[in-house]
Amino acid sequence: MAGNVIDLGVNGGLREADVRRALSQVLSELFVGDLESFRAAVPVAQTILCLADNTGEIVLDRLLIERLPPGWVTITVRGVPVLNDATLADVRIAGLDRVAEVADNGSDVPGTILDDCSPAFRERFDQADVIIVQGQGNFETLCDVRANIFFLLKVKCCTLAAHAGLPVGVQALIRGGRR
Fold it and tell me: What are the tens digits of pLDDT across the range 10-23?
């Protein structure tokens, strides 16, 4: 979740020092969420779909992906560059294609609006046993979807805080709507 601060869409003045500070503070910052449900869901899942967020944070996503059951994970990104969201080219540069299957969602909008995504992505989404979703834009567009979703994000604004019932600044693992 420390990588979630590497979001130039929110912080255009981000400096290397900001990233280093976020990485060193991540373990001492407040974390809330349903970690027990996440830990229970992952080992029994045969398909895990990870929706990546920003380009900068996908390097850190690899730390999580490498701890998930090998061969079960697909990482998806935007179909084309949108703001600073990760693309297939970024995933390959970060080496994530060596630890998981990679695909795009076929969409060119921020967040994940399922009706705007490709049929192939929607099929993966519908068939996934566990869906790990990163970022506020993805939360905003998928928070009401009935699926076994776990949202990983840092609460960055009052609107999200009010919707999630969490204070601004916390790192959160939010369990979405179940199928």
Answer: 556 667 787 777 77
Domains of the chain: which residue ranges? 2-175
Using DSSP's 3-state secondary structure scheme, residue 172 falls into strand
Residue 78 tokens read as 């935007």
**Global confidence as pTM:** 0.88
Q: With bands split at pLDDT 50, 70 and 90, how would you rate the model's confidence at 1?
A: low
Q: What is the dihedral sign for C-alpha 92, 56, 66, 122?
A: negative
**Higher pLDDT residue, 33 or 4?**
33
Say which DSSP state 1 is in: -
| Structure-token pair, residue 14 | 């981000």
Q: Does CATH place domain 2-175 in 3.40.50.10880?
A: yes
